[in-house]
Task: inverse folding
């Protein structure tokens, strides 16, 4: 098993960049696969989750080339997708399972979708319900439709779907399923989830409109292959930004980060806490805004985090909770019950991780209260969750002395080069095999 040994207390200084955005990489490959002609993707995240996307598309008959620089997806266009001969293995990628189920449902094929032990605990009823309403046959294990799931697609009806959760995975699944249907597929959300699918569908030529929390796709869509430049992943940059904020004496710039407003909740949280975080001038990478982020060690206030901020920071709550340990008063996180069904139960795993580093954390059904205090070195487990592993490493850098995070291979699902980037900034992090 791979572990990381961290000798904390050293200031972090310098400039780094982060790999491509995971959400956008998945979508670029999936839309490219069904478009007419070639889609050329630069900045594609070569993390395990997105490599699973390329492998699954291969099983569906999509030809993909990778010269190490650019990924070229040869879209199937009017040929459609082939029925896969083997179950599609999404590995650890919940986004892939949910988006792929929608994509498969749009075609007259049957596919079985499966993944690792964490995926097999993640509820798929949230996509099975709308897909069945559209006319697909979807089955899974037990009441919550756990993977492996079977999807038989075909001639789907467009629907208006009021999603009970603010989830871009659910919204995207329904939109992808509606791509070949005649008429308007509409999704209405209870809160603002990330809108990369909508932006990218428009770029590929689909007729799609966003109005507040409603999104409307008019099908059938004829997608045309194109070039996609994937910006740096703000969910990865989040670890550097919080490290720069909480590790004494630090000052960090993260270059080329996607700053789509549906993803910048962590920056808003840190700003409200009083952190010295600034964004450089914003440029465009296709449909997505991009900027450099700068941060420096800051005195932080305790705040309340909830409501619409939660979906805009959903993957950053564990690392935001670490920042809260360094505030001068308690921080209360609410409305975040979705964290219970991520790669791990992130309310439980975050509370347990931070408690090991000496913080006092009360877990609630839909969030947690973090009482600040000094961080001491600790030995912790990742629970197989990449974001918990990386939060543990940053906590180790903030605590003076030697810490250890066990079972860290999972970091590669979203952030290959995480340790190397930290070393560039002056961190003392060593990889060991136990
Ligand atoms: C994602 C959506 C979010 C997020 C996940 C990526 C996406 O999940 O947590 O890491 O790319 O659509 P939910 O849609 O379940 O909120």
Result:
């Amino acid at each position: 098993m791979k572990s990381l040994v961290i000798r904390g207390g050293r200031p972090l200084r310098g400039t780094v960049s982060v790999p491509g955005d995971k959400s956008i990489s998945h979508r670029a490959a999936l839309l490219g696969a069904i478009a007419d002609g070639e889609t050329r993707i630069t900045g594609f995240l070569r993390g395990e989750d997105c490599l699973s996307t390329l492998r699954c598309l291969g099983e569906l008959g999509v030809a993909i080339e990778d010269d190490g620089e650019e990924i070229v997806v040869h879209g199937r266009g009017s040929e459609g997708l082939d029925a896969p001969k083997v179950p599609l293995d999404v590995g650890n990628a919940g986004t892939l399972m949910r988006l792929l189920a929608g994509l498969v449902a749009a075609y007259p094929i049957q596919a079985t979708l499966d993944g690792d032990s964490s995926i097999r605990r993640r509820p798929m009823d949230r996509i099975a319900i709308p897909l069945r309403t559209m006319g697909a046959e979807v089955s899974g294990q037990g009441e919550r439709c756990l993977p492996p799931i079977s999807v038989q697609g075909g001639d789907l009806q467009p629907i208006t779907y009021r999603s009970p959760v603010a989830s871009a995975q659910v919204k995207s699944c329904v939109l992808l399923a509606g791509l070949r249907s005649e008429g308007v597929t509409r999704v209405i959300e209870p809160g603002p989830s990330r809108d990369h699918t909508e932006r990218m569908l428009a770029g590929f030529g689909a007729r799609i409109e966003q109005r507040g929390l409603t999104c409307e796709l008019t099908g059938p869509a004829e997608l045309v292959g194109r070039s996609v430049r994937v910006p740096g992943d703000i969910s990865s940059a989040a670890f550097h930004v919080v490290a720069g904020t909480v590790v004494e004496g630090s000052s960090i710039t993260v270059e080329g980060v996607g700053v789509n407003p549906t993803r910048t909740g962590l920056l808003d949280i840190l700003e409200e806490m009083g952190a010295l975080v600034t964004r450089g001038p914003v440029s465009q990478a296709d449909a997505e805004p991009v900027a450099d982020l700068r941060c420096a060690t800051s005195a932080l206030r305790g705040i309340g985090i909830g409501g619409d901020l939660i979906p805009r920071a959903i993957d950053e709550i564990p690392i935001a909770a670490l920042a809260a340990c360094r505030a001068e008063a308690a921080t209360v996180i609410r409305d975040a019950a979705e964290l219970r069904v991520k790669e791990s139960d992130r309310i439980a795993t975050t509370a347990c991780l931070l408690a090991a580093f000496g913080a006092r954390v009360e877990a609630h059904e839909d969030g947690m209260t973090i009482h600040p205090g000094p961080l001491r070195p600790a030995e912790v487990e990742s629970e197989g969750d990449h974001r918990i592993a990386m939060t543990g490493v940053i906590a180790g850098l903030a605590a003076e002395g030697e810490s250890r995070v066990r079972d860290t291979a999972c970091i590669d699902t979203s952030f290959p080069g995480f340790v190397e980037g930290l070393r560039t900034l002056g961190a003392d992090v060593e990889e060991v095999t136990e």
